[in-house]
């Protein structure tokens, strides 16, 4: 939400060097940052492809070997001399809202960057098991061709499985499935003593299972996660409803949009709901309902 009256404000004139840099940031972003980002993504993708060619397809055994590196590193930590444990991921790569100041102080960093495999996809049980550095774009690329998607698929491609569990992940389907962590059925964690545990909602580590979401790595290092998939259909009908009013009106309309729209095909709750807030008095809610066949969508629109 903008500050009151910000919709009526004129664009600020740059009055300091910082303002100037903000206003003309495109001068750096378009010719320099965008090409560098493109090259960086190419590098990441090629590195993953080459790694796969060398090491072969993912398997539980390779996953165990990858976890062992993490356990070995943690076992080398001296509890009194070394600092507290944290991931070695550089702050500039993180999308988290959390300040990574803690990484500047004395910390015992554990590198998880080799944990990049989708270990398996189980089509029968509609489950997928991923290592923590698998990012959202890789999850969707692996399961969409199979007619499935994660129940909650945070839209930023760069978000990692480890990040959306230990931080948070939310998306337009969260009114049905909750946060990303609510779709998880098991976590593999390396604890401070280097032991590996598999925590589920009903095993002896169920307390850890419930504590991991939003824990920012304070429970242990997440080295694997199993989460639910859902079947996806090919077509989608999107209904936009503009809203004008105060914050209460916008919030009430948002809540209303979770209900099945009148005369909706199959009278169902929308599969996705999203809202764009343009300023303090104007928003646009959109409901999205998936359809299996174009014909069904056509009938609905007629
Ligand atoms: C501009 C912006 C836009 C955003 N948009 C969205 C959005 O559209 N949808 C959405 O759902 N969220 C969004 N977020 C929030 C984002 O999903 C969360 O902040 C998420 O935690 C970041 O994930 P990451 O992969 O960058 O993880 P990181 O930032 O690397 O990690 C998040 C936290 O988890 C810890 N952690 C990560 N991996 C592990 C591990 N393997 N073991 C133990 N601890 C670990 C890290 O130490 C850190 O504390 C947005 C955030 C920003 C800043």
User: Structural class, from helix and strand content?
Assistant: alpha+beta
DSSP helix count?
9
Query: How many domains in all?
Result: 2
Mean pLDDT: 86
Q: For this structure, what is the CATH class of the largest domain?
A: Alpha Beta
The major β-sheet equals: 6 strands, antiparallel
Low-confidence stretches: 1-8
Global morphology:
globular
Residue share in helices? 25-40%
- The Rg value, from CA coordinates, equals 23 Å
Percentage of β-strand residues: 15-25%
Strand segment count? 11
**Cofactors, ions, other ligands:** flavin-adenine dinucleotide
Question: Can you characterise this structure?
Answer:
- It is a single chain.
- The chain is globular, with a radius of gyration of 23 Å.
- It contains nine helices and eleven strands.
- Strands 3, 4, 5, 6, 7 and 8 form a six-stranded antiparallel sheet that branches. The protein has a three-stranded antiparallel sheet with strand order 9-11-10.
- It has helices at 17-23, 26-55, 60-75, 136-143, 161-166, 174-177, 206-211, 247-256, 294-301, and strands at 84-87, 107-110, 118-122, 127-130, 148-150, 184-190, 196-200, 221-231, 235-244, 272-279, 282-291.
- 24% of the residues are buried.
- The chain has two domains: 62-229, Uridine Diphospho-n-acetylenolpyruvylglucosamine Reductase, domain 3 (2-Layer Sandwich), CATH 3.30.465; 235-301, no CATH class.
- 31% of the residues lie in helices and 24% in strands.
- It is α+β, with helices and mostly antiparallel strands and 302 residues long.
- The structure holds flavin-adenine dinucleotide (FAD).
- Flavin-adenine dinucleotide (FAD) is lined by residues 87, 89, 94-98, 112, 132, 154-156, 159-160, 162-164, 166-171, 216-217, 221-222.
- The chain crosses the membrane at residues 24-44.
- Residues 54-232 form the FAD-binding PCMH-type domain.
- One of its GO terms (molecular function) is FAD binding.
